[in-house]
Amino acid sequence: MDKVPEPALAHNAYERGDGAAAHELSEEGKRHGALMDQYNKQASDFIFRENNAVDRVAGDTIDLHGQFVEEAEDILEQRIRYAQSTGQTHLHV
């Protein structure tokens, strides 16, 4: 049987008038969301390190394969700032 997501459980508890249960379920959902974000960040970092190891790409190149769009944008912004601060004149993406 599929597990009902916390937001639905929290909403159901609220609709029943059980504010305490609704609050606890809502907080549990927030904790799960924070853990999901943490695990996604760890996975993104691992994938980036593997794809951009010294022996895999040149120093002026970054490989963003395997990244979600938002992650790729963040990584690219950081890498552009680093390239500018170290005097690099180009970057291959």
Describe this structure in words.
With 93 residues, this protein is mostly helical. It is built from three helices and no strands. It has helices at residues 6-15, 19-51, 69-85. Helix 1 packs antiparallel against helix 2.
Topology diagram in text:
Layout: H1 6-15, H2 19-51, H3 69-85
Helix pairs in contact: 1-2
Radius of gyration: 21 Å
Average pLDDT, all residues: 90
- Structural class based on helices, strands and sheet pairing: mainly alpha
Spatial separation of the terminal alpha carbons:
44 Å
Précis, in short:
This protein has 3 helices and no strands.
List keywords for this structure.
mainly alpha, 93 residues
